[in-house]
User: Fold this.
Amino acid sequence: MRLIEAVGMALRTIRAQKLKSFFSLIGVLIGVTFLIAVVSIVQGMNRYMVDRFANTLIGANTFELRQRPSIVTGEVTDETWLAWRRRPRISYSDADYVRDRIRTPATYAKFCSDRVSVHYEGKVAKDIELVGTEASYFGIRNYQIEAGRAFTPQEVQNAQPVLVIGHELAEKLLPSIDPLGKVVQIGGLPYRIIGVVEKQGTLFGLSLDKFAIMPFNAPGRRLICPINILDALIVRTDDPTHMTLAMGEAEAIMRSRRALKPWQENNFAFQTAEGALGTWQKISRILFLALPGLVAISLVVGGIVIMNIMLMAVSERTREIGIRKALGARRRDILAQFVVESATLSAAGALLGIGFGLALAFVVNALTPLPAAVAPWSVVVGMALGIGVGIVAGVYPASRASRLDPIVALRAE
Amino acid sequence: MSELIRIRDLAREYQMGEEHILALRGVTLDIRRNEYVAIMGPSGSGKSTMMNMLGCLDTPTGGEYWLNGQEVSRLTDDELARVRNREIGFVFQTFNLLPRASALHNVELPLVYAGVRARERRERAAAALARVGLENRMDHRPNELSGGQRQRVAIARALVNSPSILLADEPTGNLDSVTSEEIMRVFGALHAAGQTVIMVTHEPDIAAHAERVVVLRDGRVESDRLQRGVAA
Assistant:
């Protein structure tokens, strides 16, 4: 008997008993739903963390030389925190020293930032990130200017009080007026707006467009950094290899500048996109480790349910088996019939599970800022597991069916 | 060997707990092609066991059974399944149709196990149904058919593989007398067309339709006579 016919026969039987079939495949359904949904959400989360979180906050192929890590996602003890705070800060001359000595090609930007309020004609925008930096910062961050221009190295050199502001700040503080050339107040000091950066979107629902960028030693710098002190030196390279090289160089240069002995730890830190992802990667690894266990449990339960249903089917359909045998079905025909029926049942469960899993991922995608990305491999694995569970669960009932004596089976009620 | 069936000293012993039961104690019987045989006997005579033997549903514990030139008494289960599929068309007292399948699909079943392709299967099954006068009931399920119609579906199923023997086990046991006569007419027509028919029954007026009556008693052939002049 050909496989397609066996599947067709199985589908007819399943269709004849829709409700019973549905309940019998609920275990497989849940297992596969879970597999698809979790994989999709974790995958989406992964991509989101890499694309948005890390690359927005730090940037690809970029590292920051800092006093201490800026993005700490794991647990940090009080002692570590105190030790970090006792470290010497990064000074202008540290930054220049490192910049002059790194031989790997790279772009640099001195960087300071803090939250401030920006005033314009009686209106206030609170909680704006004021960044003091160099002209290279726009390139490092891939900021596209949507109106006006970025500031120039000359303006940085001359500590000009000019601002390039984020899209949202422009919209909120200066609605329906051209912000270019307008003078706003920060900490009582006047700044002239010369450019607006195009919209950056959101991260975990928070706006990335509420910032103002000024030359790092412009008059307001005391609002964000002590004199001569930087939050970070940002270093951007072309590719990951260069980044590793440059970071190695920077480490050696800083250690020698600070005269650290070989046994002493670095008293400065490098922040990278990957570093920021550390904790997330740990979480996603745990999820991926736990996933097979959780899926396995529901599939085992689903398999047992299907096996029971098939055993019931065999005893309910004993006479059918007798008839088929009398008409010439061999053992392997009966075996195949019930294994295929079990596998088809289970595959139907897997198919529904894939549907539900995708729907769940879609709902998460639509209702939360987390994007769910469906991993094609998880669909394939889900289907394969479904069919596999069905086959395994079907073998025992099917072999019992195939061994029935046709005379006895024909007499069954 | 001109016989279709050649049985020599056939014995069947059952083990029921401690007890040995000898259902058949050495039956010798020859049946030629195109015979119409009724096998009769009281209950306990070995009639059912004989039917199972003839139908290759069971194997004997002693003796020989040659069917269509092949010794079938020592075959394995799967080999017996092949023989049943090719050589034997069963008609049961309780019809034994698949309740959820249409008449057409029921008739197709033996062809499924013979490995016949779907299209040819449908054509042959439809032809077999037409032969028993059910060309208008092909898509009906058994519960939508009368008892006589169900038994005709079963006969169509038995014929669809062109078997050597049409083997009927109390074919009218679940039918009223009018319908029984109708089914007997179908059998008669099939026999007239060259079909070998073997019928196991305990009803003398049903057996009266056959050309030859074999009576079993206590696992042996008690009598074996031809009844000439019976309407075919």
